Amino acid sequence: MAENRADHRMNRLLAALVPEDLAALKAHLEVVNLTRGQVLYEPGDTLRFSYFPHDAVISLVNVMEDGGTVEMAVFGREGVCGLLAELATREAFGRYVVQLSGSASRIAFERLNEVRNARPAIRWLIMNYSQAMLMHTFQNVSCNAVHPVEARCCRWILTMHDRAGQDTLLLTHEFLAEMLGVQRSSVSIVTRTLQTAGLIQQARGSITVTDRAGLEEVACECYGKIRRMYERLLPGTYTQTQSI
Q1: Residue 100 vs residues 8, 37, 39, 56, 75: alpha-carbon distances, Å
Q2: In this structure, which topology does domain 8-133 adopt according to CATH?
Q3: What Pfam families does this protein's entry cite (predicted)?
Q4: Res. 84 pLDDT band, cuts 50 70 90
Q5: What is this structure's pTM?
């Protein structure tokens, strides 16, 4: 693979570090390209690397016995994927799949753990991110249980918009349905409604956000609650995308 010269500071957690702390991590970081649909880990695999996404987005999905999936967590430029390797077994309890192509800074978990233990600021940042991620996951569980598909779909699109940093999101109705744990036909109905309202523009394999403020009005309360929680625990690392 040709050398990838993307800046590690494209990830907001890494960008929040002072130069000395970033340098301690940088010695072990490798920039990798991730492709939509690429599976990083399957359930039961040993987690070996943590990924700090730049413009890629990675989902952790639960795989059911019938092959169905539902998203449990999502990782973008605001955070890091693979921290669960610190658990005793280092076993992936879901599928880690790339949902938006892009680059990421990758580090072997052993090296991340060594630097974290030696650098209090890095340890604090990762602890706060882990807390935010856990609260985000809990909120997703509640959201999936009580909120209608349209509101959840808007919340999910906004979440991707924040993490991808671009208006056009390359994804299909089928993939969106898998992330939400609903039928593809339900997603098609919702996205058609959102397009008619002028909130998004659909094309084959993509959705473009055209009215972010309008999406926020339709989205359930979970989006705002999750965003505020990240901003409280990680000030300056979860900058809200400006409304279009």
Answers
A1: 18, 8, 12, 5, 11
A2: Jelly Rolls (2.60.120)
A3: HTH_Crp_2
A4: low
A5: 0.86
